[in-house]
From TrEMBL:
The organism's place on the tree of life at top rank: Bacteria
Record key words, sorted: Hydrolase, Membrane, Protease, Transmembrane, Transmembrane helix
Family affiliation: Belongs to the peptidase S26 family.
Cell location: Membrane
Record-annotated Peptidase S26 domain positions: 54-271
NCBIfam families in UniProt: sigpep_I_bact
Catalytic activity annotation: Cleavage of hydrophobic, N-terminal signal or leader sequences from secreted and periplasmic proteins
Alphabetized InterPro entries for the sequence: LexA/Signal_pep-like_sf, Pept_S26A_signal_pept_1, Peptidase_S26
TM helices/strands, residue ranges: 9-30, 50-70
Membrane topology: Multi-pass membrane protein
Enzyme Commission numbers on file: 3.4.21.89
Name listed for the protein in its UniProt record: Signal peptidase I
Length: 300
């Protein structure tokens, strides 16, 4: 049975259904009853004055319906909630998620209706994680179904599953080696505790992006990524993802694989950056204290 995700899209869908049903019932049933009963009232311009609830539903239904279509099938706004994708994305970045990149999905249920393309290694994706299905996470896609992933102290080797089709097309069978290359012992100013990290770079599918790792000699109380070794095999229908902040990200290394049905879309654009108060100000919430469009651009 498909999961129901109780996010903003769910409540938009419920609101669209309620206002839409009321609007249709009034148009094809209740309005005729008012005319027959002679209870129709008009304003000074000669327009019918609808009863309170009906007036609200008829006024808001077109707006809610358009927002639902845009948000469900085109682009959905999303706020980066943590530093797990530093240095490319910061806590406070607002982005747009391409909802049609991998297919058209049913709102609230996320069931795919029309297949468009498959997620590719290196894509930055937004999804519902298996351990917190009502939340939305953002990570970089590393492994697709069938991949064998081998991590050896900063060197990532992906061995794709080889089938007759991929052999015939000459694609998908050769191991992919991705080496994290040291760039600098400095990181971007907005990375929290940046003095403990070094900047690296890697390229997946000709897409280069920056990463950060804990610097040599800094203890985190656990094995740092550049000292770690592990192997995973991605099951069919599942995906493996990691944060670009390799030592500051809870991802597939911790909570397992991402279900294909849980993928929301592809992170496409940064459009706004907001800084928040250090301490809660109102009802335990941090309030915005600065807004900038300087970080707007395509997400790599």
């Amino acid at each position: 049975m498909p999961s129901i995700y109780f996010d903003f899209g769910f409540y938009l869908l419920v609101a669209a259904l309620i206002t839409g049903v009321v609007t249709l019932l009034d148009k094809f049933w209740w309005q005729k009853k008012r005319v027959e009963a002679g209870t129709v009232k008009y304003d000074e311009k000669g327009n019918e004055k609808y009863p309170g609830l009906i007036d609200i539903c008829r006024s808001f239904f077109p707006i809610i319906f358009v927002v639902l279509l845009l948000r469900s099938f085109l682009y959905e706004p999303y706020r980066i909630p943590s530093g797990s994708m530093n240095p490319g994305l910061y806590d406070g970045d607002f982005i747009l998620v391409n909802k049609f990149a991998y297919g058209i999905r049913l709102p609230a249920f996320n069931t795919k209706l029309i297949d468009i393309s498959e997620p590719q290694r290196g894509d930055v994706i937004v999804f519902h994680p298996p351990h917190e299905p009502q939340q939305a996470y953002i990570k970089r896609l590393i492994g697709v179904p069938g991949d064998r992933i081998e991590w050896d102290r900063g060197t990532l080797t992906i061995i794709p599953q080889c089938t007759d089709a991929t052999t015939t097309n000459g694609q998908g069978c050769d191991p992919i080696t991705i080496q994290s290359e040291f760039v600098s012992d400095k990181v971007e100013d907005l990375v929290p505790q940046g003095e403990y990290f070094d900047t690296y770079q890697e390229s997946i599918n000709d897409n280069s992006h920056d990463l950060i790792y804990v610097s040599n000699g800094v203890s985190t109380g656990r094995v740092n990524s550049l000292d770690d070794r592990w192997t995973e095999v991605v099951p069919e229908g599942k995906y493996f993802a990691m944060g670009d902040n390799r030592d500051g990200s809870q991802d597939s290394r911790a909570w397992g694989f991402i279900h294909e049905e849980a993928i929301i879309g592809k992170a496409a654009y940064k459009w706004l950056f907001v800084t928040f108060t250090d301490e809660p100000v109102l009802f335990g919430k941090h309030l915005p204290k600065g807004i900038s469009f300087s970080r707007a651009g395509v997400i790599n």
